[in-house]
User: Fold these one by one.
Assistant:
Number 1:
Amino acid sequence: MGRFITITVIFKGNIVGSMMTRRLAEFVSSLSYSDIPPDATEMARLCFLDFLGVALRGSSEMSGLMALGAMGKGSGGATIIGHGRGDTERAALLNGIFAHNLDLDDGHRGAQMHPGSCVIPAALAAAEATGATFRDFITAMVAGYEAAIFMGILANPGHRELGFHTTGTCGTFGAAAAASRIICSDVDAVVNALGIAGTQAAGLLESDHAGTMAKHLHAGRAAQSGLISARLAFHGFTGAESVIEGDEGFLRAMCRSDGYGGEAPEVGAFHIRNVYLKRYPVCRHLHSTLDAAAEIIRENDFRASEIEEVIVSTYRIAAEHDSYSPATVEAVRQSLPVSLGILLEGGELRVEDLEGGFSPEMASRIRIEVDPDMEELRNMRPSRVTVRLRNGEVLTAYRELPRGEPEEPYTWDDIVEKFRELNPGYETERLEVIKEADQEPVAEVMLELSGR
Amino acid sequence: MGRFITITVIFKGNIVGSMMTRRLAEFVSSLSYSDIPPDATEMARLCFLDFLGVALRGSSEMSGLMALGAMGKGSGGATIIGHGRGDTERAALLNGIFAHNLDLDDGHRGAQMHPGSCVIPAALAAAEATGATFRDFITAMVAGYEAAIFMGILANPGHRELGFHTTGTCGTFGAAAAASRIICSDVDAVVNALGIAGTQAAGLLESDHAGTMAKHLHAGRAAQSGLISARLAFHGFTGAESVIEGDEGFLRAMCRSDGYGGEAPEVGAFHIRNVYLKRYPVCRHLHSTLDAAAEIIRENDFRASEIEEVIVSTYRIAAEHDSYSPATVEAVRQSLPVSLGILLEGGELRVEDLEGGFSPEMASRIRIEVDPDMEELRNMRPSRVTVRLRNGEVLTAYRELPRGEPEEPYTWDDIVEKFRELNPGYETERLEVIKEADQEPVAEVMLELSGR
């Protein structure tokens, strides 16, 4: 474990640690598969499985098809998920959009971001282009998640408060780390790659707030920028060694300096182990409510028409997702009453349930309130759902966290099941290759996964 | 003139005008060639001429060749300046790098940015891909410069103070405006294009500060992001209509809210008329000093070895460019004593003079001081150079602004001369087509310009 670098420098107020970018690059550059704890490589495989299922379905979603139409596949041998092969850089962009457009991709609470949809497309494109093995790819994934989550924890909550979408911004660092782990052989090139990436880091929450597809683009653009950064750095193009911590660098420009007040996050903690996976294609803040409601449905026998009233008591941020009349499917994904209404009426909340429209009448029976006690539960996402039936019966359930968090993770079989639900007709036996193909080139693995 | 929209809303403190993005889109969408004052179209042609000369030389510079090596040209019919043809999106990226890597491209004082290297590559790639005429291209250029400079004035100085490089950030809006003027036919698509662009706006001054090539990438990435935005929007992809002014939008995230305190800049002022052009391949803040020194050299007969001491009295920002031992050619471009030393020794300051190394001895005879009176001259860039010869003679010259500003513009012939100096062997008679080819498709014009 001697090679793991712990950044103990505290970034507080205007005091910014020196050498952050280089230390992160040292970690990325020196990481080898044998350094990684088995539960972290196992999680990387699970995240990749999850990514594939989500992106394959996302590849036929509206925003994915529009992006494909606008950009074209270009020519080349890179996998463009669901659409054959094309240009390497284009693949990173499109696969990122495909992986993020259903709001079903993995995430990290503390970093407030979705690492997989940025990191994996960059690692995949780099690995296919260079003939890397699947084991190299898993190593790159772990390096990329580490960089993305480190940056997300470092930058937040002040970064988010300013209006930045951490997935786009910190995702760019993660993508560059992953791609440069594969492409660049020496630490200086990785430093340059991070420098080039940091200066491209972008993404405004206004895109999300306004319910637009531009939010989907953040992941794709991060993946593509990261890939470009690694390729440029490999060819000698230079980036700032002080891009994170410098006077005119990322932290100073893009974080409220009082936002980060705790201990600096570690590099080498293998943060991928704390990633969550999702089952509902809606904003993560709605999930504990939905899990609680699903529990009530599962354990009781009643029909939606028998419901008189539903009361959701939850933490403030979740409660603020209170639009009763969302105008686009992107906005439905941010609406607690509508998501919950669909679940209560149909018993499920799959991608196709969101697309089938919704009943405002059911949503109107749902009341949302903030529970002040729940605000005290730091880094938890508590919710209590109470269903009052017309016959006077009261059904209730409480969740402190949604399912799929590291505290209650989904298993391989759960995610295979998610894959199957999202992609009916896909022969899920093929997915076993993800567990077994370490010595194979990634390009071969992708051929096997896409049925050749 | 009825179609020009003037944004009179003041952005001050937390008060942000509504509808800024839409109003900008309305201007872009409705602008036609006949609306544009002749001095603005004339300036657009001059900026294009300047761009071509700079980018052609930049296409064989180190960072340009590295980027070309890393990315490849891809396949397609877009002009990749100096390197034939390739993919449209790649062309925008590479031409932006080529145009910006010599620090010789056009700029705007108030906006604190270089619009041409972002706007023109996006407009060019869009025009070639769609068969647009040269007149449409000039119209798109004017729209793009307007958007970029509007955003730059609006965002600065607070944007720059945070550490953002306006060329990369506001350049993305300009590139999207230019490309969408060509690609998108209705205003809603332009709104979406600006929304998609704004959420990709990026660029940290740390890249510049650290003397890295990542600064060159800012222009290329802005051009490419703008082009992508227009293409996505044309295909129905959505972006936030409130991307500039929204609660989680560009101004709030990326400007000090107290940075912008004056009157809001106008849209429809045809800001392109206030663009400056450069003759020395170094930071603009060094130019009035260099012009003053060149005047002294021109009007007096002495040799560099006769110089005992040189005193430069100038404004603070210029005086801060005081590195006496720059380590890279990018850093030489930011060094006042070294740039001036080269000019005094060789009588010229061309691209090749920078690359030939420099004499620290000459630079050591140069003393730089801040003149407090010059600080009072708002929006001027004053400098006085005093050369003291060994024989006791004292030679002095003063410039309030460098040459090439709108107050003392370069002529067509000046810029043809710059073109020729940068690109010996190029038959500059060909450049006349820029004045005459309005009805021709841009693709044809580019063939003529590149000698078919």
Number 2:
Amino acid sequence: MSKVISVVSRDVRFPTSLDLDGSDAVNVDPDYSAAYVLVTLDTGEEGHAFVFTCGRGNEIVTQAIDSYGQLLLGRDGDELVGNLGEASKRLVHDSQMRWLGPEKGVSQMACGALVNALWDIRARREGKPLWLLLSEMAPEELVDVVDFTHITDALTPDQALDILRRGQGGKAERIAELQAGGYPAYTTSPGWLGYSDEKLLRLSREAVADGFGMVKLKVGGSLEDDRRRLGLVRHELPQLPVAIDANQRWDVADAIEWVSALADFEPYWIEEPTSTDDILGHAAIRRGVAPTRVATGEAVHNRIMFKQLLQAGAIDVLQLDSTRVAGVNENVATLLLAARFGVPVCPHAGGVGLCELVQHFSFFDYAAVSTSQEGRFIEYVDHLHEHFAEPVRIAGGRYAAPQLPGNGAEMLLDSRLRWSYPDGAGWREVGDRAAVTEPHMTPAEV
Amino acid sequence: MSKVISVVSRDVRFPTSLDLDGSDAVNVDPDYSAAYVLVTLDTGEEGHAFVFTCGRGNEIVTQAIDSYGQLLLGRDGDELVGNLGEASKRLVHDSQMRWLGPEKGVSQMACGALVNALWDIRARREGKPLWLLLSEMAPEELVDVVDFTHITDALTPDQALDILRRGQGGKAERIAELQAGGYPAYTTSPGWLGYSDEKLLRLSREAVADGFGMVKLKVGGSLEDDRRRLGLVRHELPQLPVAIDANQRWDVADAIEWVSALADFEPYWIEEPTSTDDILGHAAIRRGVAPTRVATGEAVHNRIMFKQLLQAGAIDVLQLDSTRVAGVNENVATLLLAARFGVPVCPHAGGVGLCELVQHFSFFDYAAVSTSQEGRFIEYVDHLHEHFAEPVRIAGGRYAAPQLPGNGAEMLLDSRLRWSYPDGAGWREVGDRAAVTEPHMTPAEV
């Protein structure tokens, strides 16, 4: 028996809006941020996790983590870490707090961070990176961590068990293959809207030289610019697949029209063509822009929404995110749903720390769930990795397998302190550059 | 020109879990609460609003209100109140904070409270209750407050304008009719799961005597209990329509099976049979339980979800809620969507203050949007009204038209202070009754 003795959150923000890294048609000026949490047991064990946000409002998420953290304080750490399905339900289905979602937005993300911190403790106890812990768990134990509430019309526990049992065959070989050769990546680094054509092209050439299998361009600001930028890359690097990403910029009819106007450049997929809530809209867009693939997921708030995107035949590519949903458990549910429908998962990453976190799900997916890398890549963006205890390692356009025990969330203490908002030393230095904290509306709305 | 000089939130909670008022299959022990906000201009004008919650976590919503409030501080109050469409977009589409939803959960509800506080100032300026302000606004001005982002595939500004222009005919007569005779209500007061059969039957008889057109029973705890309770009311009061409400208790197949097992009692509607996010699930359930009507909405987080419920033919009754979405503007959008699809709106109320708020939307709907009361009632629950500046008035089973200028949210200052959590005098008195704050999981999950 052990005891949860503290749950401490911290508001960490990086002033990325100063450089327009991460600018797209909707997120014009993000300050990549982490609502960070450290869960400590009386054994001295620590679990790290965070929720990614775009800056303003990060303090709402730290408040939510503190509030949900009250449900863990004083509880038996062994019981929580030994039964992570139950631990997650205790947070997500709290009878009073459920109203705040249910299962969506700030409250869902805060639950996810706490669940992930418990998984971090579990993985450290077993001395394994999260992906390997998951890959080596028995199918029965994995099914126990999944919350099947409201998804049994698409995936029952028995069906999940079947998928995972099939995934046992050849698993050791696939784990060895991942350890040796990693997992394919694509890169979004060249394609931010704020970058010049010259920078776009230079970074795209570097992406090819670095062995990435695809690049992604942000679109949706101006059709003329989109045609020029997409044309430039496709003309200069004709063998390089190029995905495009509108970050929910369009209504349904606009999406079909705009994507059709880019069809001659054969984009590999169109990502987030419209509101992430719009299941029927995605289905209509997919029919309207075929054969261009439709992808979404980074802002999809729970397994029930993913279930419907799959049931409606609305997506070709499922892009789960590591800090949007209620943690590892819900992402395992989503991987199983995707496998059941035969849709490839290409996780969302970028921001700060999302690459470090999300890679674990693709490694696990290959080892034990879909057992395929066909049509699958993990997104890669090359900034802010230096702040983490185990930065992602990319070689030959592939993610190398994480090695350190844990879930990948641990940010260096120096970084956490320096970029604590608003009082960290880093923020005191940039504080006079007022643009960072000046509110804007998204261009779609101005 | 005027200026927003303060945005002050307050955590107000009532210890309703002590009496099991409001107990249902999912919300077993709510402490009805308000994340209250007061927006003050330098003219001395005040706007009141709140977000309803079930207790724990109310402090997350007050934090969110404070955070979004920063976007209003120092701004021109006349500009905000004069262009409420723009004011809403400035909050909802803030480029960094949008990530926290987008447009859902805690962040959406907080935006809604601030938007509603601005409407309160506007209505007080014009000396009208909100419903009358809305009813007397020109169609063009109403369309200007609606955010059509991501709904134009179902409702364009021109289509909205057509609906509102048609609603001009006979409007003055309907307003006079509402002033004289009010709007029909149904009551949920008899049907809480925590009540004995005797109390259920006594309160149902009182409901008939009081002239209510329908009662609603909570179901989903045990099928045997549901059959007994529903049978009892239907047998003793055969002329009284009885709706049932499962508060999202079931998966899709369970919902169809359970509701079918209650079909011989001819429930008027089944409310929230499954996850409020499950559009396709509601559509399947509606097909599976026909001719029993399917109703949902109190936890539907934005106009994009309502759009799809309507597009999918998933609901017979739309139950908008006054504090779940981004305020008056988004509820106007939802009323217009419902009118476009010909689906009656029967708003959700109860909790604390929800009756006081939501009545305005039905009065407006009748005066200027659907222009019908056919198959429409406002929910009524008879507790906690004494805390408001203008408590709802019910006569002959109908809501009387609110008279005081404003949106109906103003809670008496004494009540706000007494039930401030955790330091108000009321909470100091009940504080030793520990059951109030002890976390539980929902029975579905235990």
Number 3:
Amino acid sequence: MTDLLLRDVRPLGGAPLDVLVQGGRIAALAPGLAAPPGVAVEDGRGMLLLPGFVEGHTHLDKTTFHLPDWLVNEVGPRIEDKIDTEREWRARTGHDAGAASLAMAKAFLAAGTTRIRSHVDVDTAAGTRHVERVLETRATMAPVQEIQIVAFPQSGMLARQGTDRLLDAALAMGADIVGGLDPCAIERDPVRHLDIVFGLAQKHGKPVDIHLHEPGSMGAFSLDLILERTRALGMEGKVVVSHAFCLGDLAERERDALLARMAALGVAIATTAPASRPVPLVGPCRAAGVTIFGGNDGIRDTWTPYGSPDMLERAMLIGLRNNFRRDDEVALAFECVAGAGARGCGFGDHGLAPGARADLVLVEARSLAEAVVARPVRRLVVSAGRVAARDGALVA
Amino acid sequence: MTDLLLRDVRPLGGAPLDVLVQGGRIAALAPGLAAPPGVAVEDGRGMLLLPGFVEGHTHLDKTTFHLPDWLVNEVGPRIEDKIDTEREWRARTGHDAGAASLAMAKAFLAAGTTRIRSHVDVDTAAGTRHVERVLETRATMAPVQEIQIVAFPQSGMLARQGTDRLLDAALAMGADIVGGLDPCAIERDPVRHLDIVFGLAQKHGKPVDIHLHEPGSMGAFSLDLILERTRALGMEGKVVVSHAFCLGDLAERERDALLARMAALGVAIATTAPASRPVPLVGPCRAAGVTIFGGNDGIRDTWTPYGSPDMLERAMLIGLRNNFRRDDEVALAFECVAGAGARGCGFGDHGLAPGARADLVLVEARSLAEAVVARPVRRLVVSAGRVAARDGALVA
């Protein structure tokens, strides 16, 4: 790790200044800093400086991003179709979750993402193999990228006996977070599902992140059960609800009552801001004091051909979904893939301030809003003080 | 105009073949074509061949795309705020609709768009100046890009006396299409507004394209009046309704009744597929036999910081908005910025078939779906038989 002086950069589009990086952290931000002896100097040429991006909800293990052939998607419309199609495809092709996750993680880094929360499938067909392979990717990337692994029962836990023991094993071998999935709609026994999820969290002293696709009052019921357990078990600040689509179609009063409880318990929301269905909106969540942050969900996998390792594009999609047009609104969309993502996932020391981890991204843009809508090439990516990428490509 | 043989390309991802271009048109598509004497040969290296893209609804005159400074958006939430803000900004800055539209049109061409329908503001402040300047852009671009101009009363017609005469003048000087705007919500006198719009269409023998942002039953009422006039005046196939948001929030039976009438009258829909509100969906429109096609709306103007001259990106946003995941569905999203756009706007001879205008785009993609989701650089753009761009940049 070399120390670094970044000259003439505009943090979030503000006035130009210099950034001194020492020991992997931001030592100082001020105009006209002197380079200490032996410190490498980068000329930022007045570029926009952004903090490293946070991908708060993806599935590194599922992608076909690294494969030579295009995967033709012919999947059916139901969520169960997608789950079954994926499991069968994986078994048939011998999908390599290690190669997939490593290629994807590197693409994220080249585009400025220095922190990732990845859900990773655990099921009775694949066992803990995907977690094992993503743990290898995590170790490989550790010097320049922080990856959290959610042990995720994608194929359901209750209908497939032994999944709970596999999750237990995945957490014992290093997965960071206990995953869960639609306690009513998929699992069909919400109390039993959530008691297992929260039981594993208690056993391993690890947080929880639950996929909740359930709409309307069904989703509200599951969310209620989640909040009840969060409070009863003292897991404030340790629970994320991913998607939480129900918050997009409840009446405002019911929605706001749930948001108030989430805020009080420090339960955060991960959103991909899909365009095709009701979603929790950023404005009401923030107004209630709930942290809401962004992610791609899967990228070019058997579920979807969409997605991109570019978190500025995800910020744009969040902005479009929330009809954020003003510059101060677009800044909120960016916050979803930066500070809010770090808070929601528990990535420490994020941001552009002395003492923070030196995760820095330089782009040619006149303003933060322009960076989001134009998504210019990443001229420089610094992660934990190391130069990780230039001009969109990883440094060897 | 040079004739051209394009070797080894895969039309829409199909089997490799060659394309012979003569006199600005596709003369033949087949494997192993011989190059006639004197014909330039391009090696397509197995790249994906797409037809030239169609931008079906934009506002070339409004953009700030060409300006050195970023426009900070601080506009209010109502549509009237956006209309007033824009008119005042234009007057204050002396906005140059000629430079704006030319820069934007060129950016579209470099990204493969060879046909554009642009609404152009006509109002009592700017008069017909914007139309005059976009007519200049149209003339400049004519050899390589076909631009349709809609004379568009953005600031309303009824509240600003004389706007109808300005529209009349704009049509006389060469605008192609009569524009209109929210007959109830903005104009507040739907019959009078539509009678002027359709009266101008009759007088000039030109088609109609009406912005209809009105929601629900109000929008359905305006649409009913539009369809009534289309039939009464024998304007079948000559009317486009832009946005038609109401079709996104009506009950299915009412929606389908309107769609059936639209199909019978050849009334098409232009959609930007915004993520933040109900919109007409591609599936029901196509099932009813209604042509639905895509556009950006404004790009980086006082209304919105979003938008891109890349119609593959618009296709992606249409796909996301419609939850199109299967390859055959993503192909429908692409159709919205290609064949359907040409049909809806009345751009003739579009497509990849002998006799069609030789508007050709080459990209490195394994499939049509990949071209939409990955939006790769345009390696070659041919327009009316001329090589117009390479590697994303215009050829001089």
Number 4:
Amino acid sequence: MIQKIAKQTGAAFKLKKGQVLKVIDPEGEQVSDMVVFNAADAREKISSGKTLDFEENILITKGNFLWSNRSRKMMEILEDTNGRNDFLLAPCSPETFQIMYNNPDYHPSCFENFYTNLKPFGIEPDDVPTAFNIFMNVQFSADGKLSVDPPLSKAGDYMLFKAEMDLIVALTACSAEDSNNGSFKPIHFEVLD
Amino acid sequence: MIQKIAKQTGAAFKLKKGQVLKVIDPEGEQVSDMVVFNAADAREKISSGKTLDFEENILITKGNFLWSNRSRKMMEILEDTNGRNDFLLAPCSPETFQIMYNNPDYHPSCFENFYTNLKPFGIEPDDVPTAFNIFMNVQFSADGKLSVDPPLSKAGDYMLFKAEMDLIVALTACSAEDSNNGSFKPIHFEVLD
């Protein structure tokens, strides 16, 4: 059954070892940030530093694993029809809009959508790590300069993630203008047994 | 007063707001991993994702700030005589040597040197984030492929970090063969008022 995350919101749920999570961009050009925790002990969680180290690549896609801060495999990426994701940048937060967008007003953010949806699992704001940013198109040049470009994903693009342990997963439909080519769309997901 | 970290060991200490930390590679080609915590609340700590996001660059050097998971500035980099550092890869850990070096035996690691030195401050292994890897030379290509190359630092190269809040700092003399061109050397540091 396909579940729908409305624009600028999020969801959190359990995923059992062996189950496959399908994350879909139904309209195209929409990023979904994802964080993952060990369901048996949420102090074990997804780590960008461990993943980039063990996979020896900045660009994480089909065939790569997502690793934990305890150096264990959390998910295997079985499919990635788009192929461009980001694992460098932190989820957008209230300060992202204050500091980078010069917007002092309230703005929805992936960070808020993570910690509100993860609260029932006992996970607090300080526990939210750098997310794996599905469909996010962060380009880098040889001198290291980063730019957040429009996603390359088309309507219907998806990724498949196989759980390597029992997990708590949180997903968002990202709330940052620059990451989603200026408009906010939903994200769909499905748990496959 | 210059303090000395012996090869393959580490140190942890407090740094007051406004003080400047000097980290020196006394012999050349030696990496020092650094992690930083808010001394008043160690749940606030250095974040690679927030730093790369706010600084809009993979390569962090003079003029950049190191940011926390709460989107606050922790340190300003005042000087960097070498200029090549890494903020992508997690500190080497026992699993680094088991998985990437095929070495099942005990091996010193930055991760162990962090958590043993941080224990007196109430910081546990799971609290250790991705470190800022001073003098570490991680090259990346346009397709994202990463390679750990010999450090470019020469004897006497140093960095200066100004504390933007009261901090707990941990430093290592890195224990990984590939990161240090195959030999292990000390790291020196000094706190300047």
